[in-house]
Design a protein that fits this description.
With 417 residues, the protein is α+β, with helices and mostly antiparallel strands. The protein has three domains: 3-218, Rossmann fold (3-Layer(aba) Sandwich); 226-321 and 408-415, Chorismate Mutase Domain, subunit A (Up-down Bundle), CATH 1.20.59; 325-405, no CATH class. 44% of the residues lie in helices and 19% in strands. The protein is built from 16 helices and 18 strands. The chain has helices spanning 3-14, 32-46, 65-79, 97-115, 127-139, 144-147, 170-179, 196-207, 214-242, 254-258, 262-277, 285-296, 321-324, 355-359, 372-376, 407-412, and strands spanning 23-27, 51-58, 82-87, 120-122, 153-156, 159-162, 243-246, 249-253, 301-303, 306-310, 314-319, 328-330, 334-335, 339-342, 350-353, 379-383, 386-389, 400-403. The chain has a six-stranded mixed beta sheet, with helices on both faces. A five-stranded antiparallel beta sheet has the order 7-8-11-10-9. A four-stranded antiparallel beta sheet has the order 12-15-16-17, with no helix packed on it. The protein is globular and about 75 Å long. It starts with a helix and ends in a 5-residue tail after the last helix. The mean pLDDT is 93.
């Protein structure tokens, strides 16, 4: 091992100090980045570091993927690391394939980690990934948030996904493999210029003579991340002052909201939309700008599965009835990803949206202080077409509703990026 490769290994393992986890998952595709990370972590485990468990996700999109997973399993056996292959068969041919595959990959790995009692899973994003992502987002005219560096730790499900090699170049990981006489799998898609990431990789090679390098762009992204975090802090302070949660709605004081800088207003609205809809990501920048223009003009707007209304005193972000109209779960289930109802269970009882017709069957709905629109998109207990209970609309009949995403979750979201 050369002094350089030793330094790289220390940098990666040092990411987890001073309190490393007892067990650590690592995502391995067989490419040089993930295989290099696996080798470093496996050797650390052999020297007394965390027990390492490897996982490979086969998306079922390439015929070679199953063979590659078997090759990863062979590497793991040689390193004394347990290995599991997870498969995804969820592609329907509709929507954004890359986005769906990425989300499915993290869902599968999070479930896998939970089943093994693993809290942290390492993924092999490098300085080069950081720079390539920066260029791709620059091409999309992304703002500050989009151009900011990837975070080192990101919760997903019940798992924290870590990027311990984010300060390491891809070639450094390959040097580690070469020093041990190991080869890696070359994904043919890495040479396919139909992919934006491959185009960005080629562009970086052309820009390097000008002094525009992967480490340089990664440092720029880090500086932007610091600015983003500062803005999120001020947005958190502002949200504490201007917003509160009422049942399932975010209510914003219009007078205070109007005097905030536009960027802070944008961030408050973004987190409100995410909290009410339950979506992990907010709407794109142009849609959010259109919403802000609409509110300035005193006009309501629907966006991201939410209805945003404005009057002379407040802006209210509530769930859009259309977004939950088809949601139907057993009475013991979680409705719309956040509502848990408890009460005298009856055979055949289901939870579904109350709807406007349901609200008309709740004599005390006006006494709740919630608008008709908010109550229409709230959970109710039904048995066939018979309304059993609607706790938020004042029709209790022994039932209560709990919002699993509390008010503090909304405010904490500003500081979790």
């Amino acid at each position: 091992m050369t002094p350089k490769t030793s330094l790289i290994c220390d940098r990666i393992t040092g990411f987890f100090l001073p309190s490393p986890p007892k067990a650590l998952g690592v995502a391995v595709s067989g490419g040089s980045d993930s295989l290099g990370l696996l080798v470093v972590l496996a050797e650390w485990a052999a020297e007394g570091g965390p027990t390492v468990h490897a996982v490979t996700v086969d998306h079922g999109l390439r015929a070679e993927a199953a063979t590659e997973a078997q090759e990863v399993a062979r590497y793991c056996a040689e390193l004394g690391v347990t290995h599991d292959t997870l498969t995804w068969n969820g592609w329907t041919g509709e929507g954004n394939l890359q986005h769906q595959a990425r989300e499915a990959r993290y869902d599968l790995m999070s479930d896998w980690a939970t089943s093994r009692g693993i809290d942290h899973v390492a993924v092999a994003h490098t300085v080069d990934d950081q720079a390539e992502t920066f260029l791709m987002r620059l091409a999309r005219e992304s703002g500050l948030d989009g151009l900011s560096a990837m975070v080192e730790r990101k919760p997903h499900g019940g798992t924290v996904f870590c990027r311990p090699a984010l300060g390491v170049r891809r070639e450094d990981l390959r040097d580690i493999l070469r020093s041990r006489g190991m080869s890696w799998i070359e994904d043919p898609s890495n040479a396919n210029t139909d992919y934006d990431r491959v185009k960005a990789r080629e562009a970086l090679a052309e820009l390097e003579p000008l002094g525009i390098t992967s480490p340089g762009l990664a440092r720029t992204a880090t500086h932007l991340a610091e600015a983003r975090n500062t803005l999120n802090w001020y947005a958190f302070i502002a949200a504490r002052d201007v917003a509160y949660v009422q049942a399932a709605d975010i209510v914003i004081d219009l007078r205070k909201f109007r005097i905030l800088p536009d960027e802070i207003c944008r961030r408050v609205l973004l987190e409100a939309l995410k909290w009410v809809s339950g979506a992990p990501y907010g709407p794109r920048g142009k849609a959010l700008e259109l919403l802000m223009e609409s509110l300035r003009g005193g006009t309501d707007m629907t966006l991201h599965g939410c209805h945003v209304s404005v009057d002379t005193q407040e802006v209210r972000v509530t769930r859009e009835l259309k977004a939950v109209a088809g949601s139907d779960v057993p009475a013991s289930g979680v409705w719309d990803g956040r509502w848990q109802l408890e009460g005298p269970w009856q055979e055949g009882a289901r939870i579904a949206a109350l709807g406007t017709d349901g609200v008309s069957q709740c004599p005390a709905w006006r006494e709740t202080g919630l608008p008709l629109r908010s109550l229409s998109a709230s959970p109710a207990v039904w048995r066939g077409v018979e309304l059993i209970a609607a706790p938020l609309a004042g029709l209790y009949n022994g039932w209560r509703a709990e919002n699993l995403r509390g008010e503090e979750d909304f405010f904490a979201a500003f500081l979790s990026h």
